[in-house]
Here is the input.
Amino acid sequence: MPTTEAIRARIEDSIEKMPSLPTTVAKVLQIANDLNSSARDLLTVIQMDPVLTAKVLKLINSAFFALPNKVSLKQAIVLLGINTLKNIALSSAIIGYMGKSKVQVRAFDQHKFWEHSLGTAIAAKRISRRVVTDPQQWEEYFVAGLVHDIGKVVIALSLPTMLAKSIMVAEEKKLPSNLAEHEVIGLDHSEVGAMLARKWRLSESLVNATLHHHGPTETDDRLAWVVHTANYYVLTVGFLNSGDCAVPSIETKAYQVLSLAPESFAEIMGNLGEEIGKASTFLTT
Here is the structure.
């Protein structure tokens, strides 16, 4: 049995060999984070990549965004704003990467993985609408929910045998996947996902939300608490991720941090299955 240090080194080596995000997406992130940049700068960068342009247009004009009419990229920037366009491009690139990953672990259910990831993204965005006043920030919550379990894919690619064993342990002992991974591997998908997020140079806020989605800390910002809460409620309404055989507990302080009562989540989680169906457009771009 390899030590935890040896396993960690193997995962780090595997992540190092994984491709970076596309150059165009890196430029989109750079422009969105530059206070001196303009909508025209973002339009120019996206238009230089025909594939990204087609993906973004398909997403913008999908049922998920429910815009009244078909819009152009230029119109979308006006309607949705730079930050939303940035996060749509980022979501598209991340899903493109994960979609190309050939997971060879039979016990790893990729359909459940996508269903849970999209569900958490939608739930995180819905919660953000209750607790964040700036609509320009809502799409970042969607991205954070979308990537929170990405470490599962990394483990499936780099440690397929150990992942299969951890899924078996979760089934036998009725455990959440993170606890079974700790028992078998010595670390869990949240830590591994944060490693990949750092490799992709995602924001520190996204890294922390991925790292702490099973247990936010006092120093974490609201994004981490929202993803933690969204993950819990998506699991409780039946959208378990691959390898999850029990629902992990929620930090009760989450309700205080978000200023939301537990009773309010029945409405927040309403029609989640229907919304996941609309968001599946993300998977086909």
Observations:
- The longest helix spans residues 110-131.
- The chain has a mean pLDDT of 88.
